[in-house]
Each structure stands twice: as structure tokens, then as C-alpha cells.
Amino acid sequence: MSYSDVIAIAGGWEGYRVAGARTIVTSDAKRIEVELIALSQDEMVCGSCGGRCTSVHETTKRVIRDLPILDAQTYLIVHRRRLLCPQCGPTLERLSWLAKYARVTRRLAESVARLCGVVSVKHVAQYLGLSWDQVKEIDKRSLTERVGTVDLSNIEVLGMDEFALHKGHRYATVIIEPYRKEVLWIGKGRSRESIRPFFTQLGPHGCKRLKAVVMDMNASYEEEIKQHSPQADIVYDLFHVVAKYGREVIDRVRVDEANRLKEDKKARKVVKTSRWLLLRNSENVKGDDMLRLQELLEANRSLLTVYLLKDDLKQLWKFTCIEEAGLFWEQWHQRAMESGIPPLILFARRLKGYLQGILNHCLWPLHTGILEGINNKIKVIKRMAYGFRDHEYFFLKIRAAFPGIPG
Quick one: which of 109, 106, 173 has its CA closest to 138? Predict the structure, then answer.
């Protein structure tokens, strides 16, 4: 068996035969060039309409990349036929192993897409000897084919959150189906105008079908939802409310207490350096940190009050009965108002306006935990690529990472 026969068997280029093969060795790499010539003209198929063709318009040579053979990069010199289709006129022949205008074989493109799912575009390009732009476009085309369209026909519940695109407060919005854990849509910005295209895509019937939307206390999101789906219940997420409490109450009280203790440098330092200790969930505080926390709270009444009310506030999301949750809220709100701590009082007054969205959690036990997981995955994707200049490609990568759990 000749060298060309072995190459032909390994290659399996349907409809073509190997006319010749040679190996070229340079200081940088080793490459194999394989010349392919079309077989008989009996089975020619139009690349546009799929109809049978009997005549060839012209034949041109194209250099096509294929998967490496052993340790050598593989280049195909393909005598590509343009057929004379009765319906379409001159058009490229349809081939099972090569897309219409592609410069790489289907199997190489599939390998590129699989590798891009686990390593960066840069490393895939280096490994296969392709350009960065070529690898990125192959992966983007593959992602578009896999997740470019989404079925919104049966969506009844949504989750919304924002994430940072770049440093400097540039954001994007991600919308998911929380039960299936599927990313439905991503768009730049976090304003009403930014998310409006999603509701346009959802359509009037889809907007009427929505029953609930879980989100943070973003007024822009809420206003847009009420315009398109006034019947949908707004559900405020525990994570965001507690995070807001940490920023606006615990941090503010901690700073105020540190300033009050400016004459006692040792005590002031203890309070100033206790931020993460106070913000951490109590069940995650152990060992020496627990002793530090206990000593801190025993020595400072204001910090003790806001810390205990933080843990109590979380209990609101454990109720399944709206009436019981409402009664618990009234008790929590009264304690906050009677505390005499200005940041806590201000927070309680503002939170009262969002009470219905908090109580709706009893009807819809939803949370944005999956969205926080998506945000963490987004950070990994960004780090792997050292950032994305093409936001459309970036959003496709995110959607591919969360295709949803089949129902």
C-alpha cells in the first residue's frame, strides 16, 4: 500500500481521491500537503438547492486546513468544482466534509469548537497552528448554530440580574428561566431600554403568559416588567436585599462606631477591621473568628443590634404563608424603627416600599442563586479569554455554558 493510499484511508474525503501527498519540514513545523481531485461526475449535488447537477462550470484550487495527521499540520489542495445548476446557475458543489465557503474541514471546525469550550482561543490557535481570528470565528459560528435561537414559547417565570462587562461600571443584563437554569437572553446595559428588546422578542402573548419575575430591587427592571407584563408578580431576592442591608446599614454603622472611638485607637482598629466578620453569614463564622465576633458584639450595642436584625431579616424568606410573613415583617420593622440607629431606620423605611415583592416569595419560592452562579461562571469565561471585545461572541459563550436542564 502506497503512502497516498494510507493518507486517503485516514482522510476519508468523500467524493475525492488523493492525487499526491508530500511532507514539508521546516525549522518551525512539519506539514503534509495532500492534493485532492474529484471523482466521477455522476453524483454532483448543488450546494444551494440540493438538486442534482450533470455539468461542471469550472474547477478551481483551494487550500483547506484539516486535522493534523500524526505530528504534522495538514493542508488539502482541493480541486473544488463549481457546478452549473439548472435552478441556481453556477454554484459550489455540496460536500459532506467541507462547508460551502469554508477554509477548514467540518471535523477541524468541530474540534476547534470543542477545544474552545475548555481553553482560550489563544491556546487553541497556538495548538492547531491557526490564527486567533480564525479560531474565534469558527467557535462563534458553531455557538450561533447551537444556541443562536431560543424557544420562548412556554416561558412563565423569569430571573433577572446584572453583571459587570468591564471595569468602570459598564454592565449587561442576563435573563434566565430559573427552573430549567437556562440563559434566555443577554443584553448590554441595565436600563429599561436595555431589556426592552427581550420583551419585544417575547411578544404580546409571551408577556401575558408571564407569572413571576425574580430580581434585585432594580427600579428600571420593575418598571419595564410592569409595562409589558402587569400581571406578573415581582419577587425580590434574599441575596440582594441582605447585600443592600450590609452596604447601607452594617457598613455605615461600623464606620460611625469607628469614628466615635477615635480616642481609643485599639478599639477603633478592632471595629474598622471587622467588616467581613460582620457581613459573613453567622453559620460560616468559626473558631477564632467566632470569638472575635462575640467580643466585638458584646462591646458594641449598635453593631449587635444591626447584626441580629440582619439574621432576623433573612427569616422572611423562610415563610410559606403571606399572613405569617407579614406579621413577622411588622415585628421586624417595629424593632428597627425603635432601635434609634439612623442608618437602620432609614433602611427599614425604604424597604417597606418593597414589601410586596418580598412577601411574594411565599407564592414563588424563587431566588437568584443560579444567577450568582452564572455571574461566577462569567468571570471565569472573561479570565480565560482575557476579556472580550466582541460582546455578541461573549454572550454566546455564556448561553452555551447554561443551555438549560431538559424538562
Answer: 109
